[in-house]
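Work package 3, deliverable 3.1, input record:
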Amino acid sequence: MSNIIVAQSGGPTVAINASLVGVIKGAKKSGKFDKIYGALHGINGVISENFIELQGLDEDKLSCIYSSPACYLGSCRYKMPPVDEDTKLYEKVFEILERYDISSVFYIGGNDSMDTITKLSVYGERRGSDIRFAGVPKTIDNDLIQIDHTPGYGSAAKFIAQSMLEIAYDTAIYEVPCVTIVEIMGRNAGWLTAAAALARNEYSQIPQLIYLPEIAFDIDRFISDVEELLKVTNNVVVAVSEGIKDSSGAYLSAQTAANDKFGHAQLSGAGKCLEMAVKSRLKIKCRSVELNILQRAAAHAASKTDLDEAQMLGEKAVSYALEGNSGFMPILKRVPGDVYSCIYEMGKLSEIANKEKNVPREWINEAGNDVTQDMIDYVQPLILGEVKIEYKNGLPSYMEIPHLVTSRN
Amino acid sequence: MSNIIVAQSGGPTVAINASLVGVIKGAKKSGKFDKIYGALHGINGVISENFIELQGLDEDKLSCIYSSPACYLGSCRYKMPPVDEDTKLYEKVFEILERYDISSVFYIGGNDSMDTITKLSVYGERRGSDIRFAGVPKTIDNDLIQIDHTPGYGSAAKFIAQSMLEIAYDTAIYEVPCVTIVEIMGRNAGWLTAAAALARNEYSQIPQLIYLPEIAFDIDRFISDVEELLKVTNNVVVAVSEGIKDSSGAYLSAQTAANDKFGHAQLSGAGKCLEMAVKSRLKIKCRSVELNILQRAAAHAASKTDLDEAQMLGEKAVSYALEGNSGFMPILKRVPGDVYSCIYEMGKLSEIANKEKNVPREWINEAGNDVTQDMIDYVQPLILGEVKIEYKNGLPSYMEIPHLVTSRN
């Protein structure tokens, strides 16, 4: 019996631990492996042999990890150098993998992480190694290609829509005109911001305006969009991506460099920038709200569809590897039809890494200030289902954090 | 049989609707009233006779309103002028109350709202009216006197502690030093910010630093507090009240006025201000997170203890009024002992309105950068219990919004 290694990398999502649980469960179920090593802090944990053993985690612990935020194993932002640039490093990694009798490596992450695991896979092939390398997808940004949607996106979309719904109630109570700008994550892709449209219901059309980074942002058009709405309502709520750019490609947020008291330039975010524009041009009450890191951390409000798919992708990664595959990432393919369902297939890592998927132009309205029904139909099923969270003393009872023990946090 | 009026006023909380449900249920149970009028947008709705009838709401609807955010009846920021300044306005209000055969008025709100209902009560007494006036307390700020804690505070405290816990997980994943500043509501009182301490558990001491507006803020001390922590951990998380002031009483946030591209001065918040200070002085990664209006709007994460007490305060207001009382606010008194419980009594509105309750000095540590166990013991029971929320299409199924119909939102 051989062993496997699993690691997590990149920014956290609330689904990344469900994928970890999927890998662990898949490996245990197969009965083909002796030890399941978790490398702490991504590839860094492999290079420094910073491993913990995961095969002993019981059902209760796995269930708690499944629904806990961020990364059970910690993360890293380290990107492996090109294969030909530092062969010594790759040699070192393979020497470690062989010494630990590793037959498969599972790397859970987003775009940069897929790059790392692709490089390892390429080097392994060149070396004639039979170790198998699999990427397991996650990113709230939903910008990986080939996969219908990425784990983490559904839960973030659910939190965004839910927050927008609660903001709709909160902002609706007064009779005086007011504009609220809600800034949502997404530097290049508008998937998260588009999900704000799910907050609309029979009582409210909030957010009435949605601006994605896929469309060049025109501040004059924006002001006139808001003005038009103020003719028919007192309460205008705008969803805006942090990554909106003007027609020259410059981030809107970078247009408002300001000096702090220590003499250093700082950048305002897109939301703050639009807040200032509304206040100064329309002379009415305006506030901006940045959903910030809760978008990717609010595990208490996760989508069950999302976590279940994330777990299944982890399990599938193990079974595809056991079938002899390497250099792949398990993907979700949506089955056409009225009822949402997905099938699981394999994508080639070499085709996926370092590519980016944007919201298609036809899912954004002509005016560039809203999304279409197609976009809403795409994201709606991904937020379905709530995850049962255990509470203790009034707060979610999340997992222990083993990676902290080693890094003195 | 006479009628009653109930209204909501001031900023929203997630508990203000539970108090409304308490008034409605109390009134229905008593069998003493014919109609239960809801005035839309607070006292403005009384003055403009903008009423809806509430006695027909069934159990299902009341249960949905109980757990919905913001104000079923809308709100206002209007403060009644002094009684002697505009007797015509008061005459008008009493003429309306009499015409609608109102025997009791219930006004759900915070400090400013207690001022309004106090004035009506004073004027009524002078007029020899037998209409009874009751304030029903709510404010996330927890700054009303006489009452052990205010409805809305427990739910906001729970959301803040939960968010802090999720931020603790999110920020712990990397091995590089990073400081995170979390800005929490509270201009004058630190109750909300203090609740962040509840996030600490056996795995994490986050937030390691807590700064309340009750203590003069010293930015040099703050920087050295952070520096000390960075010697033993990579991940420093700070909870800071939006209202921190320096020793001259100036809001820290006002120290960093910056010019936007339109040439208008704008103020950075306290969190942003500290973020800039850490970046410029310590040259390390730092980000700020503003919990913003979700603190008072996130009904999906409400405290059951809070909502149940809010409802009971509404019911008590009705029964005290039926006993012949006026000019009062029902209050909670905590029963001393190891097990949390409260009894309900009456407070005098004239003694409560326009006064403010701060966190006592002895509940803040000597250094002024944390809270004591007494503070934690005070707030801990207030966040207990979760409220069952119905979900539809992946989102909370909140109440309809009747006040929107009248204001064209």
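Residues 256-266, 405-409 of chain A have pLDDT under 50 and may be disordered.
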